[in-house]
Each structure stands twice: as structure tokens, then as C-alpha cells.
């Protein structure tokens, strides 16, 4: 919400995604009214392949995208060794695969435009070493490596 508020206050039109419809719609309504901007809302669960495809499809129909902020994430708050494979697959989907797929959809558009910004938000946990590191701690490293390959 902080990023959306800052960008809205500067006159940016926004596309906001989130999984909690009421919360996202409320934010969109408040910012749209306060700053007189256009805000589109996409309700999506980033561990769901269909929802990611819906976001990518929407991006493909959008004329220009100035800035992409990847700010989704969650943690399961237990040691990696105590977590189920399905939990880790969901975290990989949200922290890594969704980010890559959305960047892949936005980047060609930004290159064609001749401008654009991509901001990948992490947590402080990404800077803390853990002997039994769960996915959120390694995901920013993987994203940084992949992003640097394409820079």
C-alpha cells in the first residue's frame, strides 16, 4: 500500500494486484478518489498459475508500463526441514516464478518504450544467514542473479 500511495500521489495511474479483494478494492477506491487517477485491480493469488497468466494477459493489453514493483511474498515460519514440499513449491511460485513471469511480460514493453523501472522488494530476512534457510531467504538471491543475467 505504501508504494501505491507514493506513486498515486505523484499522479501515476496504477494496476494493483492482490489476493484480498476487499482490501485491494478499498485501497484502489481511496487512492483513485484522493488523487484523481485511474486504478485497475487484478485479484490474483501468485501461487496460482492461472492467476499469473491473467496478470500477464492484462499486461500484454496495456499500452505503457512505467514501473513494475514486485512486492508479494509470505513465509511459513518454520525450518525448511520441517516444511512440506507443497509449502515450498507455493513459496517458489510466489517468490520466484511469479516474479520471473511478470518481469518477462513487462520487460519487452519497457524496452520498446525506451524506459521503465523494475523494483524487486525483498525483506530484511534476505540479508540474514540461516542454517536451515527457507525459500524466502534464498529467493531474492535467485531473482538478483537472474535479473543481472538480463541487464
TrEMBL record:
GO terms for biological process: fatty acid elongation. Keywords: NADP, Oxidoreductase. InterPro entries: NAD(P)-bd_dom_sf, SDR_fam. GO terms for molecular function: oxidoreductase activity. GO terms for cellular component: endoplasmic reticulum. This is Uncharacterized protein. The lineage of its organism: unclassified sequences, metagenomes, ecological metagenomes.
Amino acid at each position: 500500500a505504501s508504494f501505491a500511495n507514493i506513486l498515486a500521489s505523484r499522479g501515476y495511474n496504477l494496476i494493483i494486484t492482490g489476493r484480498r479483494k476487499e482490501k485491494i478494492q478499498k485501497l484502489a477506491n481511496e487512492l483513485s478518489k484522493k488523487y484523481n487517477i485511474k486504478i485497475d485491480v487484478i485479484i490474483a493469488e501468485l501461487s496460482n498459475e492461472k492467476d499469473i497468466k491473467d496478470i500477464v494477459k492484462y499486461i500484454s493489453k496495456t499500452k505503457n508500463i512505467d514501473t513494475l514493483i514486485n512486492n508479494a511474498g509470505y513465509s511459513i515460519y518454520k525450518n525448511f526441514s520441517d516444511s512440506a514440499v507443497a509449502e515450498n513449491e507455493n513459496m517458489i511460485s510466489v517468490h520466484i516464478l511469479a516474479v520471473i513471469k511478470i518481469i518477462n511480460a513487462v520487460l519487452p514493453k519497457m524496452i520498446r518504450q525506451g524506459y521503465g523501472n523494475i523494483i524487486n522488494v525483498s525483506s530484511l530476512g534476505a540479508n540474514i544467514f540461516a542454517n536451515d534457510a527457507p525459500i524466502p531467504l534464498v529467493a531474492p538471491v535467485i531473482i538478483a542473479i537472474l535479473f543481472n543475467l538480463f541487464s
